[in-house]
Write a structure and sequence with these properties.
Helix content: 55-70%
Main location: cytoplasm
Subcellular location: Cytoplasm, Cytosol
Protein name: MI domain-containing protein
Family: Belongs to the PDCD4 family.
Radius of gyration: 30 Å
Keywords: Cytoplasm, Nucleus, Repeat, Translation regulation
Shape: globular
Strand content: under 5%
């Protein structure tokens, strides 16, 4: 049992709420919660010694396991034990006070003063294990604190290691906490949703633990009961009443309010008081970012807002690291800002020059604003953006891909490679904030548009580049964006080599959200039956019919059956209905491929097949992109066809010429270019 000096508590800084604090603080400084009081002994205010209690096993477990950990900086085991014991005592006090005061800033300051960063995994473990035996309020406080401390105070490997120890000790935790498996499963799920623990943690830990251990039960419950559930992020975040505590959205809203009030009143003292009352110094970069954007939007307020930032830095209210981070986030999103504020680049450059000359920004630590392609014409980009919004929103309501294709074909500015990339980026960004239906529809549309791979790759590059910022609002951005990226490869919109190119363009790919996105996408594509799984990730076949998704094999079988029934019965209307009810317009190239193969093999009633292709094309059921893709795929397997049909190449050339005459194949299509060629590394090559 740890021996704690109760006098050391007085050395910690308790923080009470300032009146009018913009954040909901628990105003309990100097008063411990009832659950905490019940756990204290009347003698000295310390947790009582109980043989076999979790305090005892935690100590023995940690000391026993920590000897095997390398890189702790201690060669002397005696010094190691002394340092760890000291850290444990102080960590326990910090956590107890946090549960009493709800003062995040105090925790941040105390941990930094305490140092010994190599032991912070223990803080993670201790925080969660103490919260598990308390009320929902403390559980939510613990989850919020971990998300707050992640990366800024506690390094990601230490968070990972802390959860590793928690899961490993699940059997011991269950002795004192009857519902330990369920509670710890929620903590693990919450950590994954908050993006402080990678999803791969589940599988890796399962492989390391004995099959009959409680730790395995925890991981399985986290995966199947929480993370696999529909709307799992909202469910997990609200499990302990998260909406009633601090959220990033709450803080952002309050930052906006304080900046607006400052612009109206010009009262710096009041603005500084509000910033202090936020008690989120780790989030001050958001103040910098929003102040700069507001300054761009309101020319008359520029001087006021820049003076506010300058003085906030001079008095030490906002540190230079947060200032740099705020400017960096603006630079990352300057292309999007330029759509609403045409002069954003120039204004931002002037802000940087002024801040650097006044000494409150280190400009050399920022990347160049001119990185990447500049918008061609800001005015036309603004017009295109408004139209793109209208087109995408209408598409999410109607599901009519042909109408979107038509709108973009008649839009002159859509011929710009950069604006096409922006359209795809906007489409996916909007879909990520919506349900599975819209995500599936976005994938279908990207596939149906027929944009050059370069434009789609540039769109994903912009999405990945801004993923760190998106993660502040969307905790599952890594999983969502990785799935969109993998789906683009499966749909053959991108080639696997495009992932490598994106990875090579990502700075420090292993350490930022963008790098994680690409690595996760590659992992998804390398999995067994990846094509089918990715096609079904958001319901696959459910767009037209709202039915569960089908596997690629099932869809192929359905296509084969509908062709045979159509050829034998001749009911063209029924055949078109069946094609539509497949609900997979991005897979219509398979209808074209099987139809052309049937014609080449000279099966009966070839004219009926030609008629079906023409009607499907004329009605917009099969787009020219899908038609072209179908013919290309026939050309790619022409060598195999030649084994059964010796003159397959000649017949295919005749089919191409007829398709051009019928008008559903572009004149530029050349059959010889596709003969025998197969796209390198296609994720669907096994399905063709």
């Amino acid at each position: 049992m740890e021996q704690t000096d109760p006098l050391s508590i007085s050395q910690l800084k308790l923080s009470s709420d300032a009146p009018g604090s913009p954040l909901p603080q628990a105003n309990m400084a100097g008063e411990l919660s009832k659950s905490h009081m019940h756990s204290l002994s009347p003698k000295d205010g310390l947790p009582p010694k109980v043989e076999g209690s979790k305090e005892t096993w935690e100590e023995s477990f940690d000391v026993e396991n920590d000897y095997s950990i390398e890189g702790n900086g201690h060669s002397d085991s005696t010094n190691f034990d002394a340092d760890l014991s000291e850290y444990k005592k102080k960590a326990t006090i910090i956590i107890e006070e946090y549960f009493s005061t709800n003062d995040v800033v105090s925790v941040v300051n105390e941990l930094k003063e305490l140092g010994m960063a190599e032991y912070r995994y223990y803080f993670v473990k201790k925080l969660v294990s103490m919260a598990m035996d308390r009320n929902d309020k403390e559980k939510e406080m613990a989850a919020f604190l971990l998300s707050t401390l992640y990366a800024d105070v506690i390094d990601p490997p230490e968070v990972y290691r802390g959860f590793n120890k928690l899961v490993s000790s699940a059997d011991d935790l269950s002795v004192d906490i009857p519902d330990a498996v369920d509670v710890l499963a929620v903590f693990v799920a919450r950590a994954i949703v908050d993006d402080i623990l990678p999803p791969a943690f589940l599988k890796k830990q399962m492989n390391l633990l004995p099959e009959d251990s409680k730790g395995v039960d925890v991981l399985k419950k986290a995966e199947k009961s929480y993370l696999a559930a529909p709307l799992h992020a909202e469910i997990v975040e609200k499990r302990w009443g998260g909406a009633d505590n601090w959220t990033a959205e709450d803080v952002k809203g309050r930052i906006n309010d304080l900046l607006k009030e400052y612009v109206m009143s010009g009262d710096k003292k009041e603005a500084f008081r509000c910033i202090k009352a936020l008690k989120v110094p780790f989030f001050h970069h958001e103040i910098v970012k929003r102040a700069l954007i507001m300054a761009m939007e309101r020319q008359k307020a520029q001087v006021k807002l820049l003076d506010l930032l300058k003085e906030a830095v001079e008095v030490g209210l906002i540190n230079t690291t947060q200032v740099t981070k705020g400017f960096s986030r603006i630079i990352d999103s300057v292309e999007d800002l330029s759509l609403d504020i045409p002069e954003a680049r120039g204004v931002l450059q002037s802000f940087i020059s002024r801040a650097a000359s006044e000494g409150w920004l280190c400009a050399s630590s920022l990347k160049s604003i001119s990185a990447g392609e500049k918008l061609l014409e800001n005015s036309s980009a603004n017009v295109f953006k408004d139209k793109a919004k209208s087109i995408v929103r209408e598409y999410f309501l109607s599901g009519d891909t042909s109408e979107v294709v038509h709108c973009l074909e008649t839009e002159p500015s859509a011929s710009s490679s950069q604006l096409r990339a922006i359209f795809v980026k906007y489409l996916i960004t909007l879909a990520m904030d919506r349900k599975k239906r819209e995500k599936e529809m976005a994938c279908v549309l990207v596939c149906s548009l027929g944009f050059p791979a370069k434009d789609v790759r540039n769109a994903f590059f912009m999405l990945i580049e801004s993923a760190d910022d998106t993660a502040l609002d969307n905790p599952v951005v890594v999983e969502d964006l990785a799935m969109f990226l993998a789906r683009a490869v499966v749909d053959e919109v991108l080639a696997p080599r495009d992932l490598e190119e994106l990875l090579s363009q990502t700075p420090e790919p292993g350490s930022n959200v963008g790098g994680k996105v690409i690595q996760t996408a590659k992992t998804l594509l390398e999995a067994r039956l990846s094509g089918e799984r990715i096609l079904r990730c958001w319901g696959g076949g459910g767009i037209e019919t709202k039915s569960p998704g089908c596997t690629a094999s099932e869809v192929k079988e359905k296509i084969q059956i509908l062709l045979e029934e159509y050829v034998s019965g001749g009911d063209l209307k029924e055949a078109c209905r069946c094609v539509k009810e497949l609900g997979m317009p991005f897979f219509h190239h398979e209808v074209v491929k099987k139809s052309v193969v049937r014609i080449i093999e000279e099966k009966e009633k070839k004219e009926r097949v030609w008629k079906l292709l023409k009607v499907c094309f004329d009605s917009g059921l099969v787009t020219i992109y899908q038609m072209t893709k179908g013919f290309k795929r026939v050309g790619e397997c022409i060598e195999d066809l030649s084994l059964d049909v010796p003159d397959a190449a000649e017949k295919f050339s005749s089919c191409v010429e007829r398709a051009k005459l019928e008008g559903f194949l572009d004149e530029s299509f050349a059959s010889e270019e596709t003969n025998g060629k197969k796209e390198n590394g296609s994720a669907l090559s096994a399905l063709t």
